[in-house]
Each structure stands twice: as C-alpha cells, then as structure tokens.
Amino acid sequence: MNHLKSEKGFALAMIMALLPVFVVGLIILFSVVNVTQTDLSVKHVCRKEGLTAQKRVAPLLTSLLNLNPLARSLRLQLLAAQAARALAIAQQNWLLVDKQTKKINELMQKRKELDIRQKQIIQQSNLILAFHHSATRTRLRQTLQSRSDVLMSLQMRAFNGKAPKLAVRPDDSDIAPPYSPQEDFEHKQSLAHEWQYRLSVRRPFSLFVSNEFDFKKSCAVTLVKENSKWQPTVSKGKFSWKSAW
C-alpha cells in the first residue's frame, strides 16, 4: 500500500515538474504559429492589394495604347494638310489655302482633344497606383502591429518603396503622341513594398533565449503582356531580399 502511494506521489511530482516545461512548449508553439500566420497574412495583404491595383490599371493601359493608331493617323493627316497648304500658297491657290487651313485647324483641335484624353488615362492610372500603394502600406502596418503575443512583441522598423507611375513614354515630344511601354516595363510598373520588423522576446523568456530577431520582407506585383492582354502578376520587383515573395 505504501509502495503504491509512493509511486503515485512520484508520478504526481514528475507531472508537476514537467508542467512548466509543457506550458512553455505550448507558448513557444503558439508563438511560432503566430509568426508563421503573420508572414502569410502580410503576404496575402500585399499581393491582394497589388493585384487589385494592377487589375484596375490594365484596361487603362490597353485603352491608352489603343489610341496610338489614331495618334499616328492625325499626325500624318496634319503633315499632309500642311504640305498641301504650302503647295497651294506656292501656286497662289487661295481657295485651296483656305480649305487646307480649315482642315489644319480641325486636325489640331482633334489632336488637342486626344492629348487631353491620353493624359487623363495616365493621370487616372497614377492615382490608382498611388492609392493602392498607400492603402497597402497602411494594411501591412496594421496587420503586423496586431500580431504580438505573450512570448513575443512585434515592432515595425521601416518601410521602403514608393508608388510607381504608369510606365509608358511618348514616342515624340509633340502633342498627342503615340505611347509605348518603357524599357524594363515590368520593373518600372512594379507596385513594390519592402518592410522590416523586429520580434522581441518578452521577459522572463528573454532570460533564456536571444531576445531580438530582425526580418526583412518584400513583395511586388506588376503587369505582363500575355496573349495580347495585360495581366497582373506577382514579381520580384525592385528589391533583392532572399525573403522576397
């Protein structure tokens, strides 16, 4: 009987001795899961906002480039009308001069209207990119700052990256020019973010393990042309961290 009580007492003592280890193990496991979920959540936020932005910009880019035939046509028509007027002046054909002058004025007005339309598309695209860049940064900060737990405290260290402009260039400096994607378009069009955060181990756990861990992360979304259509896609972006998604 005494032997049975002794075994029970020993078992209880072992349980009591191992209980703190078990609790600490659970806390560590919870924190590891929390950190993993944080990375997944931040990745999801960054990608989702970037894909949404580029998806909105894609049809605007298409619309801008689809105006190129009209831009080239108006330019050629204007050059032809100017040449015809010059010839009419040389021939002193004043009736034809008046006709060509009227045509030139009409073509110049059409080009002004086209130029306004092109610039509106570019401006709208830039506003979309700027809005989503700012919104992404805010959501990333909120997501990261809400992930501290009893073992670890998470602190934002820095954000890098600025909102891109629509990566197109005019083919010439004239009014209402044709536009084309810039060289290294995917890189320049990239809606990219880079951030750094620090995980600090809280006391009393910091007495037993290193109490600070620094992380650098980045993500980027750009547009690529697939089957004659512009499609948003996750890319390496402007940053080269190994932790980039």
Give keywords.
single chain; 245 residues; alpha+beta; 4-stranded antiparallel beta sheet; two-stranded antiparallel sheet; 4 helices; rod-shaped
Description:
It contains four helices and six strands, in the order αααβββαβββ. With 245 residues, it is an alpha+beta fold. The strands form two sheets. Strands 1-4-5-6 form a four-stranded antiparallel β-sheet. Helix 1 runs antiparallel to helix 3 (94-145) and helix 2 packs antiparallel against helix 3. The protein is rod-shaped and about 100 Å long. The chain starts with a helix and ends in a 10-residue tail after the last strand. Residues 21-27 and 240-245 have low confidence and may be disordered.
